[in-house]
């Protein structure tokens, strides 16, 4: 009798679990995919500001393993200005997208054997508002920055867990890459402050991971010249001359002779794919090099005089060192190539699929509010938080786990700068530099610090690690969210 009651209780709890999520957000079919969706998918909007009509779009995938127990992971792409469907389509989503042989036709979707949804629940969020399918009824909301983005995304999470209460006790992790190196720690800081202040629902936050992350202007900015020298992309003489004229400060030197040498470096590197120095810089089927966009890109506009570089932003959407006024980070479309695509990135599959009316209907987007989806969107964005190093130190000192990973062939945010700033925090090394393996082969290197801070490189990978090295990415991801060392 007792066993029967336990069985009935289990059935009842299971029924509650499956019925809690909003039914109207359930996705029942996806154009281009003919099989059975391996777990439940939901999508829709969370209104983070009722008065202004500010709505953030999410796509949620239940874990294919044990959704009631597995962690919930929020994924954010960078920019600032890029949709998290970048991660969904090209990196670690549940499907691989196979381009159609018929131009403009829908791609074919096949199951991705390295999807992160194999081991976790995952939310792909278009943030900040104005990105991807997220929108506001007040267009002034498309002027935003780090602080406001963290506030809105925290509000999104609180409201999302109210919509999906069955996941409130699951461990919560944040993850992202590139400019999400700013999004993630600022959001984590906001979450922790909310927990300490008694915000409801209480988020079961455990930690975060960021890949090739924008972190600190000086560490990131000064890493590139030594990196390209170490990779054999500039000569020893050019490196020595540049180091001498810039006095080792490649980020914000105002010396004319330094600017002259950096321009020479730009010329040497101009045709490279900044996201992966081993990959060609082509777009789609044009088979033509994109227009040269130099690494330092100090001449924004048509001036013939070098402009002083005050700050520097990197990301899938913003890899170039540029001057920007009043702290504004120029967003992607301002530097797009003439065919309105991201330089060196083939976004054709995602653009075709996400602008298809049947797909838009299936994933519950608001057609009138977002007429055309693009990988990256033009918004006015302010970097108003400064270096992320104090955020990392404060979070890890409170016991939250942090994994900082870097594709070691990324010229956009080189691993050398990331390795340097993780070391600069000053924690004791508890796991000395060593290789980590997948399938018996060296996949990269790792160094572990006190307070659950870990630095990892991924051998042969570019800026978006799960895109270049999906098996290796799933390996370190699954280890991190379960608390297992590599």
Structure characterization notes:
- The protein has a domain at 217-342.
- The model is unreliable at 4-18 and 283-340 (pLDDT under 50).
- It is an alpha/beta fold.
- Strand 16 (441-449) and strand 17 form a beta hairpin.
- The termini are far apart.
- The chain contains 13 helices and 17 strands.
- It is globular and about 65 Å long.
- The longest helix is centred in the N-terminal third of the chain and has 19 residues, at 2-20.
- The relative contact order is 0.14.
- Helix content is 31%, strand content 19%.
- One of its GO terms (biological process) is proteolysis.
Overall, the morphology is globular
What is the ordering of alpha helices and beta strands?
A: HEEEEHEEEEEHEHEHHHEHHEHEHEEEHH
Classify the beta-strand content into a percent band.
Answer: 15-25%
Count of strand segments: 17
Task: Report the C-alpha radius of gyration, rounded.
Answer: 22 Å
Largest sheet composition: 12 strands, mixed
| Relative helix content | 25-40%
CA(first)-CA(last) distance: 46 Å
Give me the secondary-structure category. Answer: alpha/beta
Summed up, the helix count is 13
Global mean pLDDT:
86
Low-confidence stretches at least 5 residues in length (pLDDT < 50)? 4-18, 283-340
Task: Give a quick summary of the entry.
With 486 residues, the protein is α/β, with parallel strands linked by helices. Helix content is 31%, strand content 19%. It has helices at residues 2-20, 85-90, 146-163, 180-197, 217-230, 236-246, 256-269, 348-354, 357-362, 389-397, 415-424, 465-468, 470-482; strands spanning 26-27, 41-49, 54-61, 72-76, 95-98, 108-111, 121-125, 135-136, 143-145, 172-177, 205-211, 328-329, 380-382, 401-407, 429-438, 441-449, 453-458.
